[in-house]
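Subject: sequence -> structure tokens, single chain

Hey, anyone have a minute? Need the predicted structure for the following. Not urgent.
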Amino acid sequence: LVVIIPIALVCSYMSVPLISYYYDDPEMAVKWYPYYTEAKLSMLSTTSSVSKAKRLADGILAQNDTCALAWYAKAMTAYIDDDYKSVIVYQKKAIERDYFNYDYYLEYAYMLNDGLEYCEDIIDVDKGERAEEYSDMRRQIDKELDTIPDYLEAAKKKVSKMGSMIDDKVSLDIDDELESILKKDEQY
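Reply:
Had a minute. Here:
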């Protein structure tokens, strides 16, 4: 009885966040169990608040820094803030953790292409010290954009022999959409 009562209490306590999450209330699940990463990921994927996304991503990464979705969220919030140096750092971490997710490469190309345009706009308007800073950033972004096909090739090499034999194969070939972004980069 001395052992059964504490076990029953723990099971009862842990059932609340599990049931809350099951019935699509991840916020309640996180209130009851703040380390419930899956519930936090659910909240992160549905939030439209940039500050909430930053908080959730930071909380998830404090518990588990291998979560690609949290790194992607950090990259997106940096993108919204026009912080392209952070976009590069965070999106590369997302890709490193989920290198078979083609959408991460495509989104990265879009973000970097927008970064090139942003830098060009700053350079055109400001001819002073800021223009030099953004010229350096523009070169870094351009170099990273040119490296995306290399990242895809490296990911292709990680597909095992067994992985290449299954019917549901990972597609890491550059499609028309990504190709057009990469060619647009050549305009700058």
